Amino acid sequence: MKRHLISAADLTRDDAVLILDTAEEMARVADRPIKKLPTLRGRTVCNLFFEDSTRTRISFEAAEKRLSADVINFAAKGSSVSKGESLKDTAQTLEAMGVDAVVIRHSASGAPYRLATSGWIDAPVINAGDGTHQHPTQALLDAFTMRRRLIGPDAGLGQDLAGRRITLVGDVLHSRVARSNVDLLHTLGAEVTLVAPPTLVPVGVENWPCEVSYDLDAVLPKSDAVMMLRVQRERMNAAFFPTEREYSRRYGLDGERMARMPGHALVMHPGPMVRGMEITAEVADSDRCTVVEQVANGVSIRMAVLYLLLGGNEPALTHPRTEEK
Amino acid sequence: MDASSSDTTAQLPARPVLEGPDIARMLTRIAHEIVERAKGADDVVLLGIPTRGVFLARRLAAKLEEITGRAVPVGSLDITMYRDDLRLGPARTLARTDIPAEGIEGRVVLLVDDVLFSGRTIRAALDALGDIGRPRAVQLAVLVDRGHRELPIRADYVGKNLPTSLRETVKVQLTEEDGRDAVLLGVKHTAPAGER
């Protein structure tokens, strides 16, 4: 494995399967009376959040504490200093404190990469979401949820998602979750289809390892999992569709549409959900919806990533990445 | 298992000191000893330490069932995340921890491993057990005790005491993993400086 986790595209198939298998073991810790392991005792991890987050931040903190790491939470809201400089200052402060790993969320795409490659800090950097770029641990927890549900916790060990058909629906343009998922699911052998209004499909999507469709109803019956994406108003600076109602009618998932999916197919959502927009309450509360499970799995996946990057004196060994280009 | 007992450094050809029938006889004897000491082994839970300890635990469980006529719960206990040498190398791949449905609370937990060497693995296993529950007692069964303890730990049931030097390697092979049953004694090329 590489020293940092910046992008899901950095992971080889072996890296990804190792993380998923390790997370399976971590998940068992949650069933114990003492939900704690001594593995990262004496290691200091800093959660550096330049952007709001509930789920990811709590999840990383829970994972770090379950592995007995010392946790420093740093919330940098409303900094007026230019991003590069403030990030550098913060990084050098952390370096001076002697942190062993940095988990960073930033509204600027590329900030974690800058931190990892700038030489300002020597610790491994884990990307907890940067702008519209990447959110690798979210893609990993999604893949973990799919593997558990579609193959099984035990039967899935060592397996990838070869041949599974996964559909991502909604605001792909602004979604780092979608980008990470396309990269990782492709690495794991799944067939990915993006469904979105034409205005929310990114430029250059033809170079992504996936199909694109504008017709949700045609894709649903051929999907093993359907991941609904939130419309990210906070990143929008223009009108991308006429009305919410029209968006919901064409790209929202309701009970009627869910009935067209195969019996075994999952409904996924990275959260936070906007009920009534991309997903109805009926679907969100159904047995096929894995939202709550995804949150629980997020802790296991982040424990696995932290262990594999920090548990030894170097990241876990997996097969070297083969050049694909 | 202790790190060096399955040493993969360059070695001279290892010679078998125990073969399949020897191992089977030892496990049968250990099973009888367990029944005798645990007064029927009513509340015994076997936990094998991956990798080969798990296979030995399963074999012991089968023999205990033959003797007592009752199924004995058997599981596995991975100690990787409790090791004291994690920082000496790359992060290790985790093995399976599988606690039987009966749990370990108030029971006699019998840890099973292939080679007892420094004792650090068993120390880690005791720590791991403490996070899982509170057994009534913990006992240890090993196929081979090669000596060189670094902690005050001893086995309750030993297949064979095998006095070794630190320049030697002990490798247990089991059919389930290696295709045959044997205990191999080899000699390291490298000096044993700082080994555990």
TrEMBL record, chain A:
Which controlled-vocabulary keywords does the entry list? Pyrimidine biosynthesis, Transferase
Positions binding L-aspartate in this chain are K83, R176, R230
- Taking every annotated instance into account, which residue ranges of this chain make up the domain Aspartate/ornithine carbamoyltransferase carbamoyl-P binding? 3-147
Q: Could you tell me which residue ranges the Aspartate/ornithine carbamoyltransferase Asp/Orn-binding domain spans?
A: 163-309
Q: Name one Pfam family in it.
A: OTCace_N
State which Enzyme Commission number(s) the record gives.
Answer: 2.1.3.2
Primary enzyme class:
transferase
The record's annotation in HAMAP family points to: Asp_carb_tr
Indicate what this protein is called per its UniProt record: Aspartate carbamoyltransferase
Taxonomic path = Bacteria, Bacillati, Actinomycetota, Actinomycetes, Kitasatosporales
Gene field: pyrB
Automatic annotation (TrEMBL), chain B:
User: What's an example of a GO molecular-function annotation for this chain?
Assistant: uracil phosphoribosyltransferase activity
Q: Name one Pfam family in it.
A: Pribosyltran
What keywords sit in the KW lines? Glycosyltransferase, Transcription, Transcription regulation, Transferase
InterPro entries from the entry? PRTase-like, PRTase_dom, PyrR, PyrR_bifunctional
For whether the record's keyword set contains Ubl conjugation, the answer is: no
User: What Gene Ontology biological process does one annotation of this record name?
Assistant: regulation of DNA-templated transcription
Outline the extent of the Phosphoribosyltransferase domain.
Answer: 18-160
Write down the top EC class of this protein: transferase
The UniProt catalytic activity note for this protein reads:
UMP + diphosphate = 5-phospho-alpha-D-ribose 1-diphosphate + uracil
What domain of life? Bacteria
Output the CDD domains linked to this UniProt entry: PRTases_typeI
Q: Does the keyword Transferase apply?
A: yes
Under Enzyme Commission nomenclature, its number is: 2.4.2.9
Q: Which residues does UniProt call coiled coil?
A: none
* Positions occupied by motif PRPP-binding: 109-121
- Similarity section: Belongs to the purine/pyrimidine phosphoribosyltransferase family. PyrR subfamily.
User: What is its biological role?
Assistant: Also displays a weak uracil phosphoribosyltransferase activity which is not physiologically significant.
Stated name of the protein: Bifunctional protein PyrR
Q: Which organism is it from?
A: Streptomyces angustmyceticus
Gene name as annotated: pyrR
